[in-house]
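tool_log.txt
---
The assistant was asked to compare two proteins side by side. It first ran the structure predictor on the initial sequence, then on the second. Raw inputs and outputs are pasted verbatim so the downstream comparison step can read them without reformatting.
(1)
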Amino acid sequence: MSYEIERSFDNENFKSIGSIDAKGGTVSKDLHYSFIDNQPYLSGYNYYRIKVIDKDGTVTYSAIAKVSFDAKIKTVNIYPNPAHNETTVQINDVTGKKLITINDLSGKIVYSTEVYQTSTEQTFKLTLSNLTKGMYFIKVISDSETLTDKLLMY
């Protein structure tokens, strides 16, 4: 029996990037294997699966694991926080269209604006004079994910 480690950048077209021979053993004995991908895709996601090849040639596949090796961690920073009439949202993420929403504690959207991020670290000033005192959630929504942080208005 052997194991082939396969990687894909699109979750459809997988290529073998290494293999490991089975150690043998019994069902009651825990066996551990490891493999390091020395050349992962650094932008976007890497999709991995294990191709199990049995002694009789039967092939089965593991579940697919989705992994990101982005060098820059995606974050949202809000300042000042607590805020009074305005706040600044700093987005550290890939460029592109984003939707910034502010939700009250019940989940109701009380503020919404669409922005276009032109650099990987960009700030957007939000005028929030219509918000009452209290706790809110700021969400930065892109095509691929949602980043969330808390905002306290005083």
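(2)
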Amino acid sequence: MKLLRFILIIIATGLLCGNNKMGPHEMLGKSHADSSLLSKHPLAQKKGGEKKPTLSLGVMYFINRGVIRDDMEAVKKFRKAAELGERKAIFSLGVMYFMGRGVIQDNTEAATWFRKAAELGNTKAMFNLGLMCAEGSGVIQDDMEAVKWFRKAAELGERKAIFSLGVMHFIGRGVIQNDKEAAEWFRKAAEMEHMRAIFFLGLMHAKGRGVNQDDKEAVKWFRKAAKLGQGKATFSVGVMHLLGRGVIQNDREAVKWFREAAEMGEREAISSLGVMHFVGRGVAQNDREAVKWFRKAAKLGQGKAMFNLGLTYAKGRGVIQDYVEAYAWYNVASAYGVKDAVKMRDLIKKEMGIAQIAEGQKRSREITSTISKN
């Protein structure tokens, strides 16, 4: 019981005070290739020669506008326009190869087309090429090359590239690690309404990294990102209310923000709602409701929620006491790197027979197979 009460503070402070262990995939975003040019391309073309209408036809086939969607036909039109030097078509071919639409998926081919478009001044191609260099996707992994392309795109106003330069300075990849430089790039991107940059700027103020530590300023940026639908920022506003940082401490307000973030699928917020119901802060104490939220978060791969489910089964709170189930959840939580999960699993193991332990291991495998890999 004592251990579970500490989970609330662990969850609350982990995002704002913990060591940042996010890799470039998480910080730059999972779906990294920018294909927005295809969906936003103006279809109504005026004069401008043959290549513009050909490109437009490719876009129409790609987005199913006025014609039956046909990726292979789209590629054909893009290729024809690309042969005429249309840089948007060249970029679009890169996107098609990256996504594997109308052609066999091929990152190397995608990078080749992005490079051609980038050399012609297409900023989205520069950005995508930078990301592929950072990840070693279709090209040799090279952080300095990634920074070079991010910088070129940033100088031309590509906000995703501006944000990415902030990330590279923040984690020290391709450049010397520099929090102040990172904060400056995040601020530039934030001023262009880049949602993740706004959130990161809030984090920088909360932690005092590259800027003066200022909780009120952190809350301001978190709120701004939350209004734009950024889940982690929405959760962070809740954390600030829970801890009384930059705002008056208010458990009910914290729960309100946690619930909003949970509706966005933010697993830390979902887990936190479980804790708030378990300990009765900001809401009426309710073990069954706590278990419901823990289970939702655990299914999304939230380790602390898995650990908390182990505790609820071990104590029989909100569920029928079940050592096999407790053992299984502790076991899975340990695989997700949760501190004390191994210790708690081994403690409960002492209360179990050989057959129960075998069943617990079987349940661990079953649970693992149901957890989201996203």
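---
observation on (2): Confidence is low (pLDDT under 50) at residues 1-15, 17-28, 37-51. The first helix runs from residue 2 to 17.
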